[in-house]
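We close this part of the discussion by returning to an individual protein. Part of our work consisted of pairing the sequence of a single chain with a tokenised description of its backbone. The amino acid sequence and the backbone structure tokens for this protein are reproduced below.
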Amino acid sequence: MKKNYLRKVSLLAVCSVVTSLVWAEPVSENMARRIASKYLASPELQQSSVITRAAESHEQQPAYYLFTNVGDDKYVVVSGESRLNEVVGYGKMSPNADKSVVKEFKTLLQRYERVVRAIREGKAQVPPIRLPKIREVKPLLTCHWEQNYPFNQYTPAPDGVNTPTGCVATATAQLMYYHKWPKSRPNAYIFSQGTEAQKSAGYQWQYMKDYAKQMDNKGGDAVGVLMRDVGKAVRMHYYYKGSDSNLHYAMDALRNDFGYSVRHLYKDYMLSGAFYDVILNELSDGYPVLVCGGSHVFVFDGYDRRGFIHTNWGWGGEFDGYFDINTIYLPVSGFGLNDGKFYEEIEVVLAHPKDGSHKEFAVLRGLETRDVYPFTVAETEVKRGAVLHAKVKKLGTNSPVNGELGRFTGKVALGLYDEKGVRVKLFNTFQTEINLSSIFSTTTADFDNLDFAGLPNGTYTLKPLSNELTERPSTYSGWQSIVYANTQKVELTDDKIVVKEPAPRIHLSLERQPDLLAPLYQGSGRQGVFSLVVKNEGWEEVRGKIIVRFEGIENGIKYTAPIMQEVLAQRLETTALRAPVLTSYNTNGVSNALLAGRYRVSFFISVDKGGNQSEEIPIATTAPIEVNVLPNTAPFYLSINGIEFLSDGKSTPLQVFNPEETKMLGLMVTANLRGSKNYYGSLFYRVQDMTDGTSVDVGSVANVSFNAFAYIPPKTTLAQFPLNRLKRGHTYEVHVEIKEDDQRVDVWNNETPRVQFAVSNPGSTGVSTIENAPSIPVIYNLQGTRIVIPADRLPKGVYIIDGKKVMR
């Protein structure tokens, strides 16, 4: 167990970035069994699925299906709700699993059941798709430790029975075992008497093994000492039924006692894409990540090609596997779940050994805010000459202790910057000094002195700043930005002071023309899908149902597609969304259908306002969007399910390619074909530049043969091209086309995201610095998603800025 003094949230699973798009209805047992067959040779349904009632239906349906494999210890949990990922998680279990472990896993599934219930009652949305930078990272941890013997042989035993080690100590110790660091134990923990391991000045990593059953007495003694040392360092409270601590104590222990360079991150206060990028990049660089999930601390240590992240739960290997975190992030009300906002309540610790061979994080001191919108100005428009009032709330710090000055002692102010970025004034809070002695403490800074007298007219930026007292009586670090804090724009005119909203409340627009992943056929019953990149320039997230409306250009038909997808447009960011479309449906015996022809299309997000009221927010476009609905006469349907990459002829898991290392990039498809006829002809590869929208034909394969319902060898579709044909520092999206009626037709499918890859710009250092970027840059992340916040407010990471790879 983990005690969290900052918040109370529920048990998490792990981070996934893929959302399946299928018709919004419960999944049948037969369908679930077919899905399970992808993971298990002989799936056997366990009668433990939780029943939930679908919205607007009296029929009860399972929230999930738990299948085990006949003959071994594999399992897979299939979602009972088609709007969520088809698989909740998969891995290995054992009939000898500890009862407490089984209880924890059941708790996770119970919370998943609440997510499904919320989806079916219309109270939750499915998060957007995020693609990982690198395609696959096998689990980094080889160990599968737990909390009982031999790991707890040196924990307190108040009743003669050793207490559990606790999840914080177990997760932290597993991370340390992976790195085999530190070599030396803290002096205060070394015994003058006792066993060899207790008296040893160093940790005996060589005796420790991956499983408890593999350890002899020396191994058990060594791992028991490690667990007890970590327990002391993280201030573990030991109890018979479970021991608890805190992720922040684990961070402090790694930093102060065990020689690690650390970084702590709150997901809530970062842009969503930036947080995922950090986690995936850590894993791809070979660093496991400590994760806080309310009542449990565990380790992220890999991910698969679907974007499911591998979790080591610290339960001796039981239920370790790949999980879909999207559903754990969904908002669910009730049950003491802090409104169920798991997606806003994640925190992690990144840790690198300070052994001279690993990258160290910069030591950051100062303040951070622990709120999404912490800096507010009381007035919005006043006469010139008035004095304004402001506050910055939830100020905290994760800085190491600085002697008697504590975690932070210093000043807070608001810096006023002109349009050139020059600070022209400083407004001090009326608190003369702010003191924070604990990483769990927060405070508020109030201002009643925002006087703009004497300043010329223009637009200014107010930015929260801190200045730490590093040594008494008067040595300060200098003014620096407060991490996670928002800014405010102020416009001065001859007669007014106007405080502008940091962004419009809601303004949605399409970043580029929609991509039709799956074509629309008249009356086919097949689902078409639009792929949208929606820019939300507002400070608020927009959650709701995607609405697609058609208006016939020639036939005049007006048609609103049945609502099938819940979406979330991230604040101040672009978000990849998908809009599934059925071309016909029946409602109360009335048929609604799109006939073949050309249509104008518009998109909206319907936001639930409560009380059976909703607001339709349009997604603006710069030009009309037109699409063809085709006659349902196609002799075959070709689905492209994925792209395999080859670097100079060798298979590779990478999606970011260095042109100085990869001369020839190869593309080949995994595909299937259904229908009454086979396809024989050419296959074309086209890549679209995500920075400027241009396309490049990179190769084709002649005389490709696709037979209906037959295996298609990927190597028969291989095309290779020189990587230097593409621009360095740009991200590209792969499009696959076939030839029909002498025209090239884009083919994909309605469930798999488009595949993207990036070409790095190595140069002398691989990246440039943010200071070299233009003042109004065009910014993308490595997944090709455009970011609309200013460059100086980007979270730390690597971005594509005006076509160049830039480190913030």
User: Anything to note?
Assistant: The longest helix spans residues 99-120. The chain has a mean pLDDT of 81. Residues 1-11+126-364 form a domain with the Cathepsin B; Chain A fold (CATH 3.90.70.50). The chain has seven helices and 53 strands.
